[in-house]
Amino acid sequence: MFWFPHGAPGWGWFAMSLGMLLFWVLLIAVAVLLFRALNRGAGPSSQAHGGTGRPAPEQLLAERFARGEIDEDEYRRRLDVLRQGSGGSGWPGR
Q1: Ramachandran angles phi, psi of 5, nearest 5°
Q2: Are 14 and 20 in contact (CB under 8 A)?
Q3: How far apart are CA 63 and CA 2, in angstroms?
Q4: Which of 9, 10, 59, 84 could be 55's S-S partner, Cβ–Cβ 3.0 to 4.6 Å?
Q5: What is the C-alpha to C-alpha distance for residues 81 and 59, in angstroms, rounded to an integer?
Q6: What is the DSSP letter of 40?
Q7: Neighbour-count burial of 10, counting CB atoms closer than 10 A to its CB (0-12 exposed, 13-18 middle, 19+ buried)
């Protein structure tokens, strides 16, 4: 502002104010996005799935039943297998 004898003209103040406003909006937006990205896995849905970010096998099975991909008999049979647990491999029948 040393090149203006009596300070910045009206448009200069407007531009500086607008620039400062944009700076703070950008800074707050980055902070909010960073906060949301870091807390993405801390929600109640991830705790229900064991914190892995993937749905539980029983929930996937229930969703398939709700969509009509499997019938009730198959749903109950697979649910029993999941609840019984498996041997050492983690997969029933292997």
Answers
A1: -70, -30
A2: no
A3: 69
A4: 59
A5: 14
A6: G
A7: exposed
End-to-end CA distance of the chain, in Å? 78
Residue with token string 């499997």: 70
- Say if pTM beats, i.e. exceeds, 0.85: no
> For the residues 5-15, what does the mean pLDDT come to?
73
The 10s digit of each residue's pLDDT in 35-88 is: 999 988 655 554 454 556 677 889 999 999 999 999 999 999 999 998 887 544
3-class secondary-structure state, position 5: strand
Task: Determine the Cα–Cα distance for residues 88 and 94; give it in Å rounded to an integer.
Answer: 9
Residue 49 and residue 59 in contact, taking contact as beta carbons nearer than 8 Å: yes
11-46: pLDDT as tens digits = 788 888 999 999 999 999 999 999 999 988 655 554
